[in-house]
Amino acid sequence: MGKRLLVVGGDAGGMSAAAQARRIEPDLEIVALERTRWTSYSACGIPYLAGGLLHRPDQLVVRRPEEFRAARIDVRVEHEAVGLDMAARKAEVRSLAHGRTFTLGFDLLHLATGAVPRNAGLPGCDLPHVHGVGNLGDAAALLDFARRRRPSTAVVVGSGYIGLEMAEALCRRGLGVTVLESGAEVMGGLDPDVGARVSKAMRDLGIVVHTGVRAEEVKGDAVVTSAGDVPAELVVLGMGVRPDTALATQAGVTLGSTGGVVTDRRQATSVEGVWAAGDCCESTHLVSGLPTYQPLGTVANKQGRVAGINIAGGYASFPGVLGTAITRICDLEIGRTGLNRTEAEKAGFEAVDALVESTTAAGYLSEARPTAVKMLAERGTGRILGVQSAGGPGSAKRVDVAAAAMAGGLTVEDLIGLDLGYAPPLSPLWDPLQLAARSLRAAI
Q1: Annotated active-site positions, please?
Q2: Which of 166, 192, 381, 425 is deepest in the core (most CB within 10 A)?
């Protein structure tokens, strides 16, 4: 009798592994459990659903359960693994639709349990008008609440990527929106001088942004803060996410300093026959060499692919991450890759940085928009440590060049000499990245 692979989690980290394993090993029995009604969906698209650009949650689904079943992957939606007996190699599974529990055996186990919203122990976060947006089920619940209650005021607690995108979406739907951020500026992954540009773009749209303000409690139709009460008929938790490792702990796998599952380069955990991928895992940062937690769809898909190949007897490895991420908030594109200043100093680098102002196109063209690039490098060596960008169209994707440069070990001087493309409608003669490198060179 063939082996059975049990995949826990039906989104990127789980179904990419299941699909790869099926391609390589046709005789492997594969069962995948997903607690929501959807598989392989884009959680990153949830703000566009909330903003009315999309009309149904299933528009975010990339590959439906029946498509996986056609490939002989037994996908069971609305099924949740609630317990593991590793000695017997059995999982306790609850059918959410039918309210019954049963036991399912397995030979190999792949954990893709994802993440859960952080709430920092916020009192009142379990009230019915408080919503996370970690998965499509959360999004459906939020939309259902909005249709029934028709709130006019919303508070977003925290300022991660999804939180700020949700703030914009709700504002464009006509709600009065307030963002609460306890740090110096929004988007803690950016340095404050870049994050301030995001705050300005949001305020220009009419969103109230409070920085240096801590949410203390959700109480009735208000959020109690360190600076007073803020009206809130709807509260969105935008404080980021943490790894969902409840099952991983039961399986006895090692957890790392970030709280995520530790895997090797092949996505194998510390327990024989148990693999993991996606937002439940930590990764290695390619610049610092330190463990990092990067709950991104790009990372989850790549890790899942690697896990699936190895589960089926092939060989693949996941090298690590740079934390490359982009978004658009209001009319401002934002990108980052590598380390920010705080992260660089924590990793032991003596970092120098430069922030330059430029334009997205040749300055004499009407379509030219302001853009800013901040670059960090190691003093002495000139090694590029990180890049942040904020500005008009094309600003965000410029960090991809920086990501490639860092992956290749290029220095600031190397970047200055790169033969980058130029045309007046697309870039000034000196690309903003190269302007930042030229400005930084003198400080190295």
Answers
A1: 44
A2: 166
